[in-house]
Amino acid sequence: MVDTVGWSSIFLINIPLGAITMALGLRGISESADPDHAALDPVGQALSVVFLGALTYALIGAGDAGWTSPHIAGALAVAIAGFVAFIAMELRAARPVLPVDLFRDRQFAAVNFASFALGFSGYSSLFFFSLFLQQVQGLSATAAGWRMTPVFVAMALTSSLFGKLSSWCGTRWPMIVGYALLGSSMLAMALFTPGTPYPIIASVFAILGIGMGLAVPSTGAAAMAATPRERSGAASATMNALRQGGMTVGIALLGTLMSARAISSLTDYLSTTNATDALGAATTAVRQHAMPAGLDMAPDLFRSLLAEAIGQGFSMAVACAGALGLLAAAVLVAVGQHTLRDHGPNLAIDPG
């Protein structure tokens, strides 16, 4: 659709899928175990929109205006103030959109941190893969899409086997291994270059898919296990909101870091050629993915320099994403060990 109709056409896919999902939900999803909680929290919802919107705006805008820009600093201040007001309101609300009290449970807090990391690192990665394959390796949108299929195939196959795996060894260790594979594969992608052969890329993509295929269902199961049944709806909503929030923040922040690194690298390259306003030319080239007008350089040479610069930006972005994935795995290990010490040796024989 991107190559033949236009990039904006991809949003049309959501219309029939959303309609089908709503119809199936109305027929097949029963009321939650806590029907008394089925109420809106308009003030909390509004404040969440304020702080998440301001934060996303600041993270994206910092790539253009810089972190010290007055409107970026102002947006960050609004985000911080909105977050503080949101938490204060949720602590007092009778039926909060975010059940803050559940985070007093160490296991629930750790699982939801992992869910945020899953969105930040795993879900946002597809955005950067498409940039790498198209802007660094020069593929079309269709070709890039086909080359990302190892992620989805490995994820689908692993998820389909998760039930049998969890019945054998529980959910904790598959979850830890999933985040470890996610983080390790992303760190491995930091070594990708414009000339990296596709078999190597496909192999690392498959490892990421396996990690996500383990992490996604195990995180959901762990979040449900850490809460009373009557609050399962609130726990599920919190976990998914943090995952989607992590994806939003990940694309905004990592995208800004990727752009800044690419501009810095291309500026260094252009400075060696005595180009006029190397920083301005590099900024234009990275943002528009094209050679700036008036730049005295062979087009082929410029394209290779631009691909190398964007590749370095990609490496920084996926390295940060991978580090957070490994941190999530470490937090899950640490919380599990602490739980065993708190509850005594009898818990050790529980495979979950």
Molecular structure report:
By secondary structure, the chain is an all-alpha fold. It contains twelve helices and no strands. The protein has helices at 14-28, 42-65, 70-92, 106-123, 125-136, 141-147, 149-169, 172-189, 198-225, 232-271, 278-288, 299-343. 36% of the residues are buried. Mean pLDDT is 87; it is low at 340-352.
Average pLDDT rating: 87
**What structural class results from the helix and strand content?**
mainly alpha
N-to-C order of helices and strands: HHHHHHHHHHHH
General form: globular
Number of helices, where a helix is a run of at least 4 consecutive DSSP H or I residues: 12
Question: Which range does the strand content fall in?
Answer: under 5%
Defining key terms:
mainly alpha
Structural topology:
Blueprint: H1 14-28, H2 42-65, H3 70-92, H4 106-123, H5 125-136, H6 141-147, H7 149-169, H8 172-189, H9 198-225, H10 232-271, H11 278-288, H12 299-343
Helix pairs in contact: 2-3, 2-10, 4-8, 4-9, 4-10, 4-12, 5-6, 5-12, 7-9, 8-9, 8-12, 9-10, 10-11, 10-12
Produce a short descriptive summary.
The chain has 352 residues and is mostly helical. 74% of the residues lie in helices and 0% in strands.
